[in-house]
Amino acid sequence: MLNKLIWNDVQQNKLSSAATVFFMAVSAMMLALTAMLFSSLLGSVNGLMEQAQAPDLVQMHTGALIEGEIGQFARENQEISQWQICRFLNLDNSQVTLGGYNLLDSTQDNGLCVQSERFDYLLDIDNNRLEVLPGQVYVPVCYRMRYDLSVGDTMQISDEMLTIAGFLRDAQMNSMMASSKRFLVSEWDYERLKSCGEEEYLIEFLLKDNVNANAIGNTYTQWGLPANGPAITKPLIHMMNALSDGTTILVIFLAAVVVLLVALLCIRFILAIRMEQDKREVGMLKALGIGKNEIKRLYFSKYILFSVCGGLLGLGLSSVLRRPLERQIRDLYGASDNSAPAAVFALCAVAVAETVILLSVWRSLKKTDGLSAVAALFSVRAQEQDWRQYLLISFVSAACAFLMLLPQNLYSTLSSSTFVTYMGIGNADIRMDIRQDTDVSSTTAQFAAALERDTQVERYAVLRTQSLPATLEDGMTCNLTVEMGDHTIFPVRYSVGTLPVMESEIALSSLCAKELGLSVGDTLLLRIGADEIRYTVCGIYSDITNGGKTAKAGSRANNAPVIWSVLYVSLKDPEASPQWMEAYSQSGADVTDIEDYVRDTYGPTLAQLRLASRGTMLIAVLVAFIVIALFLRLIVERNRDAVSLQKALGFTSWDIGRAYFFKGFFFAAAGVLAGLLLGTLLGEGLCGLVLKSFGADSFRFIIRWDCLLIVIPAIILAATIFAVLMGTAEVQRIQAHECCTGRD
Fold it and tell me: What residues have CB less than 8 Å from 196, skipping those under 6 apart?
């Protein structure tokens, strides 16, 4: 009997039943997709790092070292289980060609290495340890997609040729956010090609369980061991690997929350309309002695059925959408072993979505408890204003505009050249890197002199990066990667304080200040050569490069080794930059347009964000169309007697429909404006909370005004117009006599 009642009710209310299942399915799909992608990303990254045996602490070093001193340090520190020194032959990008593509414009430090002996292995596409033969090279997998490479293509280094035997995954440097990339060659080829680059070292340590890598790093510094380069810990490696695709998953999760809220409101509204239409039936059931709990269970059983159908449909759709969104994760990190946990997480996400909706339904059904049989049977239907329902249309329009705008704003921000201010870089036009040189300082001075004479240069800045030992007030020591130079020419954005102007001032990146427990006004000692100089922290800035742990100080003459130098340039005529860059590239510097630098660093992230933006835009338009059409249809149905009476009094369907049209369009347009405002302000705050954990303080959207003011409003308002037309089409079918004789 219960099944028959439910089936008859569905048959009589196809539109509201289909809409309820649709909202349940979309909510389940979005949350399940988020759970699947998060589980897959976590499983793939953890699997890669485990199979590659990623180091817990890496100290990069340029220059001479004594291996015996590092061995003694490792033996005397019981927390260290294994250690090794990996060689890295840093190449001049202008001398490297991959399958016909020259790496002149690459912002990465590309170099050769051999397979590690004890840990930090380079893996193939199946995450197996690689073995390479003479004459062969394995290329980072991210370059396969970027340069459209395949097995059998060639890699040219100066006049030497190597055959690409396959592609590798590097647990340390897999992400484009890592500034270096390793190419695997044989020991014989490495020795043969040594003259083509400058050798650097990765001093790596595996630690015992529950040992703090930062503490070991501080001890390493206190020993005065080679540290002419940044230090990287395993959590930082993990973060860089997960950040790219994690940004996209964050966008999908925010969209899932918004869709769930929309679904809750829409289903409650549909249920409220249905309960009002069934008021007489509820009164009859109560008059026959059927209890209130039995009546609620009768309605609730139908929604349990809808929930099961919506949950299964959402789970199926999420499985289909998972494949294209997961492709980059599989390519970069390998297939996840978390297939079973991913399925469990997805089922739990679906269960959460459906449970929240069903609890909302049950709460709405409790309103029938206080309805008496007499009031239900003999109530007079009030022709009340539908302003609450129109406000709900505004809310849905706002939510859909928010969904469309948030990923678009995030995409336009990350792809903008001005985003470099969050990367610890001033907003210049051109970046020149000097790294592969036996004497970086003298080469830097030569380029600076050339820029000073160049009449095309409007302004330039020379910044030299050094790794300097620092001592804090509490006696703790560490190595700081300090960028020295004039930071007033191309200033970065400071969240607290100001840029360093005096010689005794230093600015710290957000993550560096947090780790060291320093704030503006605190002091520290920097050992520069034989001198210890006290610096005062003058500002905190955002930096999501080099692990986000950097510092900036004013120019000071010293003899400490320079790790690398960067020269930032703005030209008087920006249109002449291609020819200018080509001329300076031939002089030995890596010259890159700042926009290309951002694109290289965040290319995979931008591709995923673009895909997520299009997906959420499609979902937002679909939800807006269905909700507005459905609500106006239900509003017209709710006021059917009033519409019939208006027709009996001589009003035409066009007159009545036009009133509903303009009212529905007005509230939808108001909602779109509110959604655009929320997407700009609230969305900025939500993204800022996440990016702050990666070192980007004071985050601000860089907005594409054409999308904000034209494209997105035009798309959603076009969908609104069609939805309003469909929703008010019911006015045409209402007859004038229905107010007297009832509906046929």
Answer: 89, 91, 92, 95, 157, 158, 160
| Same domain, yes or no: 624 and 691 | yes
Among 150, 171, 154, which Cα is nearest to 162's? 154
**Where are any strands of DSSP class E within 451-511?**
457-471, 477-485, 494-497, 505-509
Q: Single out the residue of 689, 711, 728, 709 nearest to residue 620, CA to CA.
A: 711
pTM here? 0.78
**Longest pairwise C-alpha distance within the chain:** 102
In a domain, 153, yes or no: yes
Total domains present in the chain: 4
Q: At residue 373, does pLDDT exceed 60? A: no
CA distance 239 to 45: 10
| Least confident piece of the model among 134-143, 224-233, 286-295 | 286-295
In a domain, 587, yes or no: no
Q: Where are the alpha helices (DSSP H) in 118-186?
A: 141-147
> For 140-190, how does the pLDDT look when each residue is reduced to its tens digit (9 = 90+)?
998 888 888 999 999 999 889 999 999 999 998 887 777 789 999 999 999
Q: How confident is the model at residue 210 (pLDDT cuts 50, 70, 90)?
A: confident
Helix (H) or strand (E) holding 667, with range, is: helix 653-692
> What are the C-alpha distances in Å from 419 to residues 237, 443, 626, 742?
22, 29, 37, 64
Query: Which residues span the domain enclosing 250?
Result: 1-63+228-379
DSSP state of 708: I
Do 482 and 403 fall within a single domain? no
Read off φ and ψ for residue 198, nearest 5 degrees. -110, 130
Residues 127 and 169 in one domain: yes
Same domain, 70 and 191: yes
Grade residue 221 by pLDDT with cuts at 50, 70 and 90. confident
